[in-house]
Amino acid sequence: MNTDNANLQFYPSEQISSAILSWFDQHGRKNLPWQFERSAYRVWLSEVMLQQTQVATVIPYFERFTERFPKVEDLAAADIDEVLHLWTGLGYYARARNLHKCAQRVCEQYQGKFPAEVDALADLPGIGRSTAGAILSISQNRYAPILDGNVKRFLARLHCIPGWPGTTRVQKQLWQLAEHYTPETRCADYTQAVMDLGAIVCTRRNPLCDQCPLEPFCAAKRTASQHDFPAPKPKKERPVRSVKLYILQNKQGEIFLEQRPATGIWGGLWSLPEKERLQQLFPHEQPEDYLLHGKLTHQFSHFTLQAEIYQNTLTDINLLQDGQSCWYNPNQPDEIGLPGPIHKLLHSDQFLNQLF
Predict the structure, then answer these.
(1) Which contacts of 229-233 are long-range, i.e. CB under 8 A and separated by 24 or more positions?
(2) Do 173 and 116 belong together in one domain?
(3) Which member of 37, 47, 215, 308 is catalytic?
(4) Which one of 9, 193, 275, 310 is separated from 347 by 20 to 30 angstroms, measured CA to CA?
């Protein structure tokens, strides 16, 4: 290895990139739906969906989105409720809200064409430097390094980079390596290759080192320390938030839902009202008399939500005419965005069987 700066030692870039591309030619994924009719729009859409989500889960969502919104202008013009509805079940709903905002920004500022520079792309809602690199390299076959979770993992193992990749120091080192090894040619293939290498071979647990094209170079393999790299995020006590949610059912078996604020838990989605909101909307109701329907636990990235769910049938409840509440029929559902756990609850066989 050549010493290129005080902190890192690099292998010759062509040696590493050639090994990765040769592996990709034989084993890489080449039939993913966003690999056909490549465009900045389709690559961007797939990359945002793939943040924190597996390829197999993303494919049907991607296909539904591109069928409904074949162009960025279609997505920009859509109602946010429809976007969130199509996103239901994919999780991390801020991605969907940013997706909609980004589409609108691209249409307003760039006349429907994604900017062709990493910095301008990274400045758009929900993108960032690595996703910007993926969009440019895959859609335009241009040199634009990426550093997603898969790339961080194999680079950290290749060089035994200590520390959690979320720190500035480790992030800087990994970007230096990513920039060094990314070739000037076959950029689109290389970007897909490094994502595939981490997803298929250099996996988080039980990496398939004997199938890895970088095995002869890998410091972690030589020292049998694959599972030490990259270092995990320091553990923090995950706080618990407790709430009470209320299923308000009318005589027709419809459920009262309200749209949550744009920021906060399940921002912009339609959900069951909480106790404080119930008492604001319907001051004559006595929630203490409601029957306990069940309990729900849901893990967010920074906390655990524990909800007690109460249920009651109301005979004289008026729908507010503010555009932020609705009656929802699970048997004939409207196309609105629901949080995954609430959608699962309202569409479960147990719940549907008890409706009028």
Answers:
(1) 229/153, 229/156, 229/157, 229/160, 229/161, 229/162, 230/152, 230/153, 230/156, 230/157, 230/161, 230/163, 230/164, 230/165, 230/170, 231/162, 231/163, 231/164, 231/165, 232/164, 233/164, 233/166
(2) yes
(3) 47
(4) 275
